[in-house]
Fold:
Amino acid sequence: MKLVKVKDYQEMSQKASSVLLELIAKKADPVLGLATGSTPIGMYQSLIKAYEQETVSFKHVKTFNLDEYVGLACQHPNSYHSFMNEKLFKHIDIDSGQTFIPDGTADDLVVECQKYEVQIRKAGQIDLQVLGLGLNGHIGFNEPGTSFSSRTHVINLMESTRLANARFFDSLDEVPTQAITMGINTIIESKLILLLVSGEKKAKALARLLNGEVSEEFPASILKRHPNVIIIADEAACREYGN
Ligand code: F6R
Structure:
């Protein structure tokens, strides 16, 4: 894992977007794995800016999102479909038929997970997967204890994750209790992984990732076994790591 320390959220976002832009510029058919949550919003803003300045087109880009809440329709304002539309897709020239997100309202969720795996396989391999870091070490919605060999699956969200995400909802009761998430093995098959970490509240999790052991109790620790991981972390997030 290569750690790139930056000053703040803005620098993290710019650096991250330049990694994506470089890939989009050089590859004829780039496949991106995308994340939601607070962390990548600045990166998306930076990508939109590049598009508006006409330095990039997304017409040839295919995307796969990490996860979606179970029970929220695509149009629901808190669905990750809506998040991606609002934060990125509607602002750029990406083909909506090339943006993939699991359907959390599918009649058969197991079949939906299998379908998602097939769609990823058909696309070849994810060239670059963007990840945020959960306070408990989750990546995607793979909560502690998830098998490292997991593929896309339905997961029960931990109370701490629901609490952390309640800020996007009117009340905790409205936060779904389940999600569909790419599995850890699915994520780890990406060629390059870009983990973004910002803010003091992530400092403990980042220190555990960098100093701790590889264990299913801390899902992000699997990244230590991947040959090509870049962590972009700001000063506040590096506070407990030390050097
Ligand atoms: C989002 C996702 C999650 C988040 C993580 C951090 O698609 O899969 O793993 O990346 O919960 O969330 P934020 O960025 O809101 O701190």
User: Anything to note?
Assistant: The mean pLDDT is 97. Residues 47 and 181 are 24 Å apart (CA to CA). Residues 35-39, 66-67, 132-134, 138-141 surround fructose -6-phosphate (CB under 6 Å). Helices lie at 9-26, 41-52, 80-87, 109-122, 159-165, 184-188, 203-211.
